[in-house]
Amino acid sequence: MAAIKQFVPLFDRILVSRAVAATKSKGGIMLPESSQKKVNEGTVVACGPGSLDSDGDVIPVAVAVGDKVLLPEYGGTKLTLDEEDYLLIRDSEILGKFVKVTQSDESS
Predict the structure, then answer these.
(1) What is the Cα–Cα distance from 98 to 26, expressed in whole angstroms?
(2) 100 within 8 A of 67, measured Cβ to Cβ
(3) Sign of the torsion formed by the C-alpha atoms of 80, 6, 19 and 64
(4) Which helix (H) or strand (E) element contains residue 6?
(5) pTM given for the model
(6) How far is 35 from 31, CA to CA, in rounded Å?
(7) Which end of the chain is more exposed for a tag (fewer CB within 10 A), N or C?
(8) Residue closest to 41 by CA, chosen among 73, 4, 78, 79
(9) DSSP-assigned beta bridge partners for residue 41
(10) Cβ neighbours of residue 48 under 8 Å, at least 6 residues apart?
(11) Rounded distance, CA 92 to CA 100, Å?
(12) What is the per-residue pLDDT across 13-48, written as a single tens digit (0 to 9) for each?
């Protein structure tokens, strides 16, 4: 984790830790690597400050550290820090973010 604290994404870049594919089925059967699906979800580990508009003002990124996001199947730059794999991706390439829905949100 120390290497992540030393790595700071620039502009609108976001460092994402991709979620690990399931190695067991719901029935408890071990899945071989060839049948495991590529997971398009991840957790934001670090964010840049944002991109600049034509006036030089900073447009902040749409996600924050700790957010769960949906990633495109292809794209981004693969990066290895402290023997862990990460994905460096632009803010505009993130497809969406997962939010927790509470009971009070459902009733309104």
Answers:
(1) 23
(2) no
(3) negative
(4) helix 2-6
(5) 0.76
(6) 6
(7) C
(8) 73
(9) 70
(10) 8, 9, 10, 11, 12, 13, 14, 61
(11) 22
(12) 999 988 776 666 667 776 666 655 667 889 999 998
